[in-house]
Protein 1
Amino acid sequence: MLQIIQIDASEMDNFSYLIYCPETLQGAAVDPSMRPELILEKAAILGVKLRLLLNTHGHQDHTAGNELILESTGAKLAAHPDDLPNSDIPLTEGSKLELGNGIIEVIHTPGHTPGSVIFKIDKQIITGDTLFVGRCGRADLPGSDVVALYESLQRLKKLPGETRIYPGHDYGPTVTSTIGWELENNDYFKCPNLQSFTKLRLET
Ligand SMILES: [Fe+2]
């Protein structure tokens, strides 16, 4: 089963991730942010070879370390073309990436940006800036769409309650949570309709 390692990667509370297959030692870097060397160090310690570089979306605080990872590993860049038009592997809803003996599934969750995606590994999701512990991503940035973000969150709410969330920033009381915890505690998840969500997201 694929393993996920969370890495504290910037002054902006960004999280990077290293996904790897313990049997084959094939790995994927996710959102290398400002400290891409930390993913490289972790991969080296584990003896993991980075085959893929994944971006949850195109914002600079997530992609700043792409170049170092790509140049030093030969990994292929996979991202949604609406955010990163020049990736090696364009992602879309339902894309499946093989990594060693495991599969990384792609859920397209537009809203924070048009090309925001979530990476699903068994019952774990790497959520970028779509969903944080206790809150959700901003919808007031260039390219954001509050209606699309609301709809993306409605899809995530339907995942099994035990699904573990690995967010793009350390903004909550804990570094990870579950869909079940969010359903009880995340005010953005608890909004009963689009109107209340729009008001909460854009006016407070
Ligand atoms: Fe972002």
Note: The chain has seven helices and 14 strands.
Protein 2
Amino acid sequence: MVWRGPMASQALEQLIMQTRWQDLDYLIVDMPPGTGDIQLTLAQKVPLAGAVIVTTPQDIALIDAKKGIKMFEKVGVPILGLIENMAVHVCNACGHIEHIFGADGGRKMAQEYGLNWLGALPLSMDIRQQADSGRPTVVATPDSPAAQLYRDIAIKLAAQVALRAKDFSAKFPTITISKDT
Ligand SMILES: [Zn+2]
């Protein structure tokens, strides 16, 4: 669908507020990149436990990730950590590993911004095929090294949420928009 920001924001709000979510442990919303209406709506209208920044290692992606970090800081949403996606390419033919987007961009950024480093995921044909076929890697090949990477990230993330649970007062942030921001 082609929607303007306000319509997309409304649809997101409706989806989150008017769905009969069953006994959820966590509700994770995968956001498109950017710092637009959708991200702001989520930050304003939904009591978030926190945000997770996912970035690829190259500079141009890191610039976007930095904007995201700034936005969530501004609206008072804690950042639970940073995940580097497509950190390395694993060759399907010989298994050799290549840093096609550069090495450690996300890890360095996490250090620079004092964020928790949650882990790195490879650019892998298996992960892509499994996800596209509706059986994510942790289901399709639970004993694979890639599935272990996902579990490690999930455990670190759950720990971050648990650590912050005390502050979970469903307090809505105050958003101020001025010409200089
Ligand atoms: Zn190869």
Note: The longest strand covers residues 79-84.
